[in-house]
Amino acid sequence: MNLVVATRNAGKLEEFKTLASGLKINILSLPKEIGDLPEETGNTFEENAIIKAKFAWKLTGKLSIGDDSGLEVDFLDGEPGIFSARYSTGATDASNIKKLLGKLKGVPNIKRTARFKCCLAAHDGNQTFLSIGTLDGIISEKRKGVKGFGYDPIFYIPELDKNLAELEKEEKNSISHRSKAFFSLLDEMKL
Ligand code: ITT
Fold first, then answer.
1. Which numbered atom of ligand 1 lies nearest the CA of 15?
2. pTM of the full predicted structure?
């Protein structure tokens, strides 16, 4: 079965490919020529995931999924949330991390709790399916690890005593918000 993933984020795409390996699902990406994805005009992860899934379905006519995800930091009342990718001027992973660490300067560990959220929408022309996955952790004071993408270097998992960027792909997938959302989406779709 083919499944189009509507993303321009290489880190996400890689994770979906690893998640689908072993299943009878072939992950396809959108051709480069079509350029950017539509603007994320939604007010929630769900709305933005649906925008991406429907966009890819219209282009390809194939079952498509959109992933809208981000980091919610309790001390910052859920910031950056749906703005995680576009949090800082420049909007690179490095500048987003720098801004977040700046906002949490001097904040003790006990108040640095956060969670990743991943919302997935699947669209097949008739129906839209939704799922959500979360991963709890703590925003560390310093970057650690070079794997993964986005905020992984500053997301500490107490149970593993490691930051997400220190985990191999398969290890991250065994606990991640994205893998929880992915398998619950397959359940929803009875696949
Ligand atoms: P697409 O819209 O093209 O899929 P994007 O990166 O713009 O790519 P989002 O709007 O969903 O995607 O933004 C999600 C951001 O949240 C992403 O850029 C990361 O900064 C962060 N994020 C989401 N999942 C993450 C993960 O597993 N590890 C680290 N950071 C993550």
1. 27
2. 0.97
